[in-house]
């Protein structure tokens, strides 16, 4: 019988996944955090994930290394320029070059396997359908389809266990996410959002992720604790 007070949380070290971790804890779950090294150029996020997992008290934190050969063609994994200083309209139009092929499908599949191995039925992911930069694997339709597949294609699902994919941020704006994090007492200085950080880890301040983060803090009326390139 699954213990529904435990959960797998996908943790990138970013603002959204960190807030999702805190929400899972607030709801009474013991969190098993899962992060991925997939050859991303913003590998600083892995160190951020480790900081967050330690600070928020993960029961266990695993960092899985994936073969980056399957993720070619993205500005986050290849030598492709990361878009900078795009307007809100440009960010919202189409699927950007920072889209990583099938990333959330692959991440959730690994989370599902670990969950089934541990007899856990709850998986949290910090996807967002508002400030989601056009990524198709952040939409509610995708999450619903994956949850259905999880319950059709696993021993636990077939034998009566019911996997639930939790998306507590799915309908929140970035400003609302930031306010939620502050309400939960999350130290957002631990997080990392930039797609193209400097070697010293400072955020570029110009990529889509930085633009959305800075806009969110402005609209929330709060100060972003991150150090951006001046």
Explain how this protein is built:
- By secondary structure, this protein is an alpha/beta fold.
- The chain has a single domain (6-220), classed as HUPs (Rossmann fold).
- Helices cover 37% and strands 11% of the residues.
- The chain has 8 helices and 5 strands, in the order βαβαβααβααβαα.
- It has helices at 15-26, 44-56, 88-92, 103-117, 140-152, 155-158, 174-183, 208-220; strands spanning 6-10, 30-37, 60-65, 122-124, 164-166.
- A 5-stranded parallel β-sheet has the order 3-2-1-4-5, with helices on both faces.
- Strand 1, helix 1 and strand 2 form a beta-alpha-beta unit.
- Helix 1 (15-26) packs across helix 7 (174-183) and helix 7 (174-183) crosses helix 8 (208-220).
- The protein starts with 5 loop residues before the first strand and ends in a 10-residue tail after the last helix.
Compile the SSE list and pairings.
Elements: E1 6-10, H1 15-26, E2 30-37, H2 44-56, E3 60-65, H3 88-92, H4 103-117, E4 122-124, H5 140-152, H6 155-158, E5 164-166, H7 174-183, H8 208-220
Total helices: the number is 8
| CATH-level-2 architecture | 3-Layer(aba) Sandwich
Count all strands and give the number: 5
Can you summarize the main beta sheet?
Answer: 5 strands, parallel
End-to-end Cα distance, whole Å, is: 53 Å
Overall geometry: globular
Mean pLDDT: 87
Structurally, the number of domains stands at 1
Percent strand: 5-15%
Provide the spatial order of strands within the biggest beta sheet.
Answer: 3-2-1-4-5
Which fold name fills CATH's third level, the topology?
Rossmann fold
What structural class results from the helix and strand content? alpha/beta
Question: What series of H and E elements makes up the topology?
Answer: EHEHEHHEHHEHH
* Percentage of residues assigned to helices: 25-40%
Uncertain spans, ≥5 residues at pLDDT below 50?
none
User: Regarding CATH, which class?
Assistant: Alpha Beta
Q: Can you tell me the CATH superfamily?
A: HUPs
Rg, please? 17 Å
């Amino acid at each position: 019988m699954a213990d529904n007070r435990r959960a797998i949380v996908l943790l990138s070290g970013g603002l959204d996944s960190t807030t999702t971790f805190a929400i899972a804890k607030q709801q009474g779950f013991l969190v098993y955090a899962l992060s991925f090294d997939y050859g991303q150029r913003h590998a600083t996020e892995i160190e951020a994930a480790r900081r967050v997992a330690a600070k928020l008290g993960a029961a266990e934190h695993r960092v899985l290394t994936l073969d980056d050969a399957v993720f070619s063609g993205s500005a986050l994994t290849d030598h492709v320029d990361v878009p900078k200083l795009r307007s809100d309209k440009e960010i919202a139009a189409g699927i950007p070059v920072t889209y990583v092929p099938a990333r959330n499908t692959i991440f959730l599949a690994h989370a599902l396997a670990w969950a089934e191995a541990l007899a856990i039925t709850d998986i949290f992911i910090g996807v967002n359908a508002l400030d989601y930069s056009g990524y198709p694997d952040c939409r509610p339709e995708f999450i619903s389809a994956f949850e259905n597949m999880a319950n059709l294609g696993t021993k636990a699902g077939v034998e009566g266990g019911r996997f639930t994919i939790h998306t507590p941020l799915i309908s929140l704006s970035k400003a609302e996410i930031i306010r939620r994090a502050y309400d939960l007492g999350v130290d957002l200085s631990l997080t990392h959002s930039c797609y193209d950080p400097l070697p010293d880890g400072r955020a570029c301040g110009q990529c889509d992720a930085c633009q959305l983060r800075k806009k969110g803090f402005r609209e929330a009326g709060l100060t972003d604790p991150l150090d951006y390139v001046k």
